[in-house]
Amino acid sequence: MPPATSSPTAQRHVGFSRRTQAPFQLNESSPQLHDDSPPAKKYRLMSDIMARAQYAVVERETYSDLLCEQCGSGELSDELLLCDKCDRGFHMKCVRPIVVRIPIGSWLCPKCQGGKRVRSFSQKRIIDFFGIRRSYFYADDKSSSQDAKKRRKRSRPLVLHKKKRRLLPFVPTKDPAQRLKQMGSLATALTALNIEFCDHLTYLPGMAPRSANRAELENGDMQILSKEDLETVEHCIAMSKRGEFPPFMVVYDSCQGYTVEADDLIKDMTIVAEYTGDVDYLHNRERDDCDSMMTLLLGRESCQSLVICADKRGNIARFISGINNHTQEGRKKRNCKCVRYNVGGECRVFLVATRDISKGERLYYDYNGYEYHYPTHHFV
């Protein structure tokens, strides 16, 4: 958290120490030694006690000499974060992963955090977390073989009409145990950030109503989803409801935070995910420092523009990283794109693969599309 000025009321009671007498040593000839005497107390090591003890925040008298541990500069004091445990300072853009907004409550530097605690999810909890019916998840392979036939049948026109490229449905992992592992990684990341899983757009009171999401108000470039592509989208939604998600793993990186890796080959033009979350007006979020907003509608008037906010509800699209589009090396990492579609008169946002993505490769897309309005200098 940012440096705070000290005050008498800010002082906290750290604790007190009490002197204890050395335990009385009894020898064999001592009359006080009996067979039924209670065993001697065992004391834990001080190192074990300190490792588990809660830390206390002690305020300094002044923070004028506070420097960033990474760059060694004391400039931009409004961006300096103070670790509540070691009392060292870090710039928000110097710490890894980068902190995009001032944390609420206590904040620990990466060294004091000691690594992220991975929360394990049982098979039942994973299925309940995503709201999947057990009969769907443990269905036999007949449905998957039928889906494969539909995909082959749907993909045939691609050979005849190369100029008119169609969206492809994702191919879920066949092994149910591996699918559970993939879903567990997503559940762990969402739980760590206190985000509720949501695979569709949500409209809440106090934000933008669903009636405001009208594609006819769009003033920019929005594609119209064809009938064939709409069938592909509906097919992907049906698979997700059965617990058949795209083959992705959410992993934690000390530099980038939570990122997404392909757990199998992803073909070019495959639907990666729909960007979901709470829909709100752009003017309500102009001063919001949320790092997970996506443009949904660019209205002819500013009061009509809508954004998707994935800070409270969202899916795996929330963890796909952005690239540094100011460098050639960063642009080479881009393997998917963000596309806004008119779906039945409403605006929807989808992430689509722009080339074949190999297993183990991380997913990156450009937040700006083909423009450079959003600052991405600090991205990878």
Automatic annotation (TrEMBL):
<protein>
    <recommendedName>
        <fullName>[histone H3]-lysine(27) N-methyltransferase</fullName>
        <ecNumber>2.1.1.369</ecNumber>
    </recommendedName>
</protein>
<keyword id="KW-0489">Methyltransferase</keyword>
<keyword id="KW-0862">Zinc</keyword>
<dbReference type="InterPro" id="IPR011011">
    <property type="entry name" value="Znf_FYVE_PHD"/>
</dbReference>
<dbReference type="Pfam" id="PF00856">
    <property type="entry name" value="SET"/>
</dbReference>
<dbReference type="InterPro" id="IPR013083">
    <property type="entry name" value="Znf_RING/FYVE/PHD"/>
</dbReference>
<keyword id="KW-0863">Zinc-finger</keyword>
<dbReference type="GO" id="GO:0008270">
    <property type="term" value="F:zinc ion binding"/>
</dbReference>
<dbReference type="InterPro" id="IPR001214">
    <property type="entry name" value="SET_dom"/>
</dbReference>
<feature type="domain" description="PHD-type">
    <location>
        <begin position="65"/>
        <end position="115"/>
    </location>
</feature>
<dbReference type="InterPro" id="IPR053114">
    <property type="entry name" value="ATXR5/ATXR6"/>
</dbReference>
<keyword id="KW-0156">Chromatin regulator</keyword>
<feature type="compositionally biased region" description="Polar residues">
    <location>
        <begin position="1"/>
        <end position="10"/>
    </location>
</feature>
<dbReference type="GO" id="GO:0006275">
    <property type="term" value="P:regulation of DNA replication"/>
</dbReference>
<feature type="region of interest" description="Disordered">
    <location>
        <begin position="1"/>
        <end position="39"/>
    </location>
</feature>
<dbReference type="InterPro" id="IPR019787">
    <property type="entry name" value="Znf_PHD-finger"/>
</dbReference>
<dbReference type="GO" id="GO:0051726">
    <property type="term" value="P:regulation of cell cycle"/>
</dbReference>
<dbReference type="InterPro" id="IPR046341">
    <property type="entry name" value="SET_dom_sf"/>
</dbReference>
<dbReference type="GO" id="GO:0005634">
    <property type="term" value="C:nucleus"/>
</dbReference>
<dbReference type="Pfam" id="PF00628">
    <property type="entry name" value="PHD"/>
</dbReference>
<keyword id="KW-0949">S-adenosyl-L-methionine</keyword>
<dbReference type="GO" id="GO:0032259">
    <property type="term" value="P:methylation"/>
</dbReference>
<dbReference type="GO" id="GO:0140953">
    <property type="term" value="F:histone H3K27 monomethyltransferase activity"/>
</dbReference>
<keyword id="KW-0539">Nucleus</keyword>
<keyword id="KW-0479">Metal-binding</keyword>
<keyword id="KW-0808">Transferase</keyword>
<feature type="compositionally biased region" description="Polar residues">
    <location>
        <begin position="18"/>
        <end position="32"/>
    </location>
</feature>
<feature type="domain" description="SET">
    <location>
        <begin position="246"/>
        <end position="368"/>
    </location>
</feature>
<dbReference type="InterPro" id="IPR001965">
    <property type="entry name" value="Znf_PHD"/>
</dbReference>
<dbReference type="InterPro" id="IPR019786">
    <property type="entry name" value="Zinc_finger_PHD-type_CS"/>
</dbReference>
